[in-house]
Amino acid sequence: MLIFRSISALTKYLEKFSDSESKIGFVPTMGSLHEGHISLVDKSIRKSTLTVVSIFLNPTQFNDNKDLNDYPVDNDADFRKLKLYHDQLILFVPEIKEVYGNNVKTKKFSFSGLDKYMEGSSRTNHFNGVITVVEKLFEIVKPDYAFFGEKDFQQLRIIESFVNDRSLGIEIIRCETKRSYNGLALSSRNKKLNNSSKKIASNLYKALRFARDNFNKLEIPEIVSNIEKKFHKISEISLEYFLIADENKLHPTNQKSNGVKYRAFIAAKINNIRLIDNINLN
After folding, report:
1. Which terminus of the chain is more exposed, N or C, with fewer CB under 10 A?
2. pLDDT tens digits along 99-151
3. 251 is catalytic
4. Of 34, 37, 86, 251, which one is the catalytic site residue?
């Protein structure tokens, strides 16, 4: 397993593959790896000639410095996990200055309304920060494929739109959300939850399953109302939002239309740990 910490060293190594038929797969992460990340790496290995995994805790996508400072970081454990899984991976683990220089600044982008609701309404400038670093990483790695999990579906759609608008020629591969035995979506933030909180957090997935199981039986306002009432009775959970939106434009809706794909989205706090999840409905 090769580990690069500088842009120049990584790009020099990757240049040898630029004129060949090799296909570069890229899995960008912020570290604190779990089986969800490993599933992305697995897909990349199966589809690509070589796989680059980045571990970079990006400061520009955090609205709260406390949230940034509290993010779980253990690079040594991440290295061991990746090496045990596949010893031919290429790791890119830069410092903040290597990526941003002396100017840690968020660029402004237009997302055509994809950022207006859900996470965009509650985390100001978050997606500008995400695409700021994604753009930089894509320019460095120059991948043929990039792999992103559906757990952060709004982020995934914004990246798809960005790549399409810029004609970058990168194929974005959607990867199914990985879950624990009780349905809780795997997330680095889960490490902050104790066993009792994890059990309570499984109610997020139960709500999503209720929405999917009843999508063809109930109207959307009925589904939303039912779920909001259920969470009102669970004192340990603070529901931030539950809504149903079309999968393409990510606009919340109260009506169904033929030929449109829908998803349910949820965000909640448990012991002040914020969790998000989503599920396809049709």
Report:
1. C
2. 999 999 999 999 999 999 999 998 889 999 999 999 999 999 999 999 999 99
3. no
4. 37
